[in-house]
Design a protein that fits this description.
Order of helices and strands: HHHHHHEEEEHEEEEHEH
Number of helices: 9
Strand content: 5-15%
Structural class: alpha+beta
Number of strands: 9
Largest sheet: 7 strands, mixed
Distance between the termini: 80 Å
Shape: elongated
Length: 310
């Protein structure tokens, strides 16, 4: 009796595992085509360094190349940043962090910046740019940390309009499914920070898997948005006339495959670059995660430090 069916089944399992490895292993990510070359990596590096100054274990990679002070012991340092911040009574955390980032960009030596960061957090920075898409994206995230976000991914890149006064999503960009057959209603997901569920990528083929716009529920309602329950899908639908400038775009830096994409990857690159050029709120997903980690850790440390003062 032939064992060919058994072998075929084994090969299929092997191929599935191999393909999963190709799409998820970081070592293979160099094979994936980039969707953007400008990913605010400088901001991500700043967040990682700030995190390191708050807790070496929360970003241990820096220990491999960041110099050590004489009074640093094993895997810990002397918490100089926290000690300096303890002398400040009131802090605007978001403005302070972005001021510290501005100061970070001014120096060539990116080590031992605890004093620089503490000064910027306490006193601000005169050259802080509040108009950039990165600043405005981070500001939205900070201001609505505890809120539910409404999410809609780009469906047709060709119909996407990135003029700051244009409406998002454009009516001619919608797939004609369920309630969106009227070309007015659009499918939405919902998520909360750190946006790793419905607002994250679930597939590998479509533009909405790689670039999504989010808006806080409170802002959506304030701007006249309406939510609809579809009779045939578990997704909600929405109707609104909200300018693209009021949304915040989250994108992934690389596509998860080279072939079979349902969109023009060159056009996707152009659209993401255009979002940046028009100062529309936009941030890359990995950079966002680094910012959220730093923000959360700083809030925790300062909250607990209040008990030391008492």
């Amino acid at each position: 009796m032939s064992n060919a069916p058994v072998k075929l089944k084994w090969y299929k399992r092997y191929l599935r595992s191999y393909h999963h490895f190709l799409h998820t292993n970081e070592l293979m990510s160099f094979r994936w085509p980039p969707l953007s070359e400008e990913n605010d990596d400088c901001f991500k590096d700043f967040c990682n360094l700030f995190t390191f100054y708050l807790c070496t274990m929360c970003y241990p990679r820096l220990k491999e190349y960041h110099p050590q002070r004489d009074d640093w012991v094993d895997c810990h340092h002397n918490a100089e940043l926290l000690r300096r911040l303890s002398k400040t009574n009131e802090l605007d955390l978001f403005e302070g962090l972005m001021a510290a980032y501005t100061a970070y960009n001014e120096v060539d030596d990116k080590t031992f910046l605890e004093g620089t960061f503490a000064k910027a957090l306490s006193n601000g920075h005169p050259d802080l740019d509040r108009t950039s898409g990165l600043f405005r994206a981070a500001q939205t995230i900070y201001a609505h940390q505890s809120e539910t976000f409404i999410c809609h991914g780009i469906e047709y890149l060709e119909a996407f309009k990135d003029n700051p006064t244009s409406i998002f999503p454009p009516y001619d960009s919608l797939h004609e499914k369920s309630l969106s057959k009227n070309r007015i209603s659009y499918a939405i997901d919902t998520d909360r920070l750190p946006l790793i569920y419905c607002a994250s990528d679930h597939g590998k083929l479509n533009p909405w898997d790689y670039c999504r716009a989010i808006i806080p529920k409170s802002k959506f309602v304030k701007l006249g948005g309406k939510i609809l329950l579809a009779p045939d899908r578990e997704h909600f639908y929405a109707e609104s006339n909200i300018a693209i400038d009021q949304w915040c775009f989250i994108y992934f830096r690389k596509a998860r495959r080279k072939k079979g994409l349902s969109f023009d990857i060159h056009l996707m690159r152009e659209q993401i670059a255009s979002l940046r050029a028009n100062n529309i709120p936009v941030i890359e997903f990995e950079t966002l995660q680094a910012f959220l980690r730093t923000l959360s850790l700083l809030q925790q440390k300062l909250e607990i430090q209040e008990l030391v003062r008492e």
